[in-house]
Specification:
- Keywords: Cytoplasm, Leucine-rich repeat, Repeat, Ubl conjugation pathway.
- With about 230 residues, this protein is α/β, with parallel strands linked by helices.
- The chain has two domains: about 40 residues, Monooxygenase (Up-down Bundle), CATH 1.20.1280; about 160 residues, Alpha-Beta Horseshoe (Leucine-rich repeat, LRR (right-handed beta-alpha superhelix)), CATH 3.80.10.
- It is about 40% helix and about 10% strand.
- The chain has a six-stranded parallel β-sheet, with no helix packed on it.
- Helix 9 links the parallel strand 5 and strand 6.
- Helix 2 runs antiparallel to helix 3, helix 6 runs parallel beside helix 7 and helix 7 packs parallel to helix 8.
Length: about 230
């Protein structure tokens, strides 16, 4: 019996055991299997172990996506976590190759995956508050948001959670140094039913740009973050 003689349900079940690259390679063998590869039902879960995987064409973003995780564990994460004004030219060059990858990818998720229920981001040092706020607005069914070692996440993300995370049940902001204890207290008051975890975040030293690099509104923003 040839694989193409299997019915659609069996083919989807077979594809579900394969990783993203294997699914893509199998899909290249014939139009029928390419059609299975492009079935949204095959893609309720997506997990990425490096940022370069986000640029591949071996997956599908669709309203069927329920769970997304991007977990980047690399020595370059340490470079991304350095304050911009302290980076050397070499470090800035390293970051320039990938600093917009996660944010650009999440913008695609916002447009294509409104039924997303769970997002995990680890080691994504360049993801911003604005990007996460848009994610919360675009995915009203989001129930779990887990952030770890995301250096640019600040109390503005907590404010966005209070304003737009109506379905959110779980929020982790672990090792996010620019989240303050006061911001966490305000969120707990605003969302008492939210399961909130912030390991080490409020105890870490937040970014402190030199006075010469601060914009006129920096002092006001600093007060708002407290």
């Amino acid at each position: 019996m040839h694989i193409t003689q299997l019915n659609r349900e069996c083919l989807l079940h077979l594809f579900s055991f394969l990783d993203k690259d294997s699914r893509k390679n199998l899909a290249r063998t014939c139009p029928q299997l390419q059609d299975v590869f492009e079935d949204p039902a095959l893609w309720p879960l997506l997990h990425f172990r490096s940022l370069t995987e986000l640029k591949k064409d071996n997956f599908l973003l669709s309203p069927a996506l329920r769970s997304l995780s991007i977990c980047w564990h690399s020595s370059r994460v340490q470079v991304c976590s350095i304050e911009d004004w302290l980076k050397s030219a070499l470090q800035r060059s390293i970051c320039s190759r990938h600093e917009s990858l996660v944010s650009d990818f999440l913008l695609q998720v916002c447009d294509r995956c409104p039924n997303l229920a769970s997002v995990t981001l680890s080691g994504c040092g360049h993801v911003t508050d604005d990007c996460l706020a848009r994610l919360l607005r675009s995915c009203p069914r989001l129930r779990a948001l887990r952030l770890e070692n995301c250096a640019r996440v600040t109390n503005r993300t907590l404010t966005a959670v209070a304003a737009h995370g109506r379905a959110l049940q779980t929020l982790h902001v672990d090792f996010c140094r620019n989240v303050s204890a006061a911001g966490l207290r305000r969120l707990r008051t605003a969302c008492p039913r939210l399961t909130l975890r912030a390991e080490h975040s409020a105890a870490m030293i937040p970014d402190q740009p030199p006075r010469g690099l601060r914009s006129p509104g920096a002092a006001l923003r600093k007060q708002l973050l407290r």
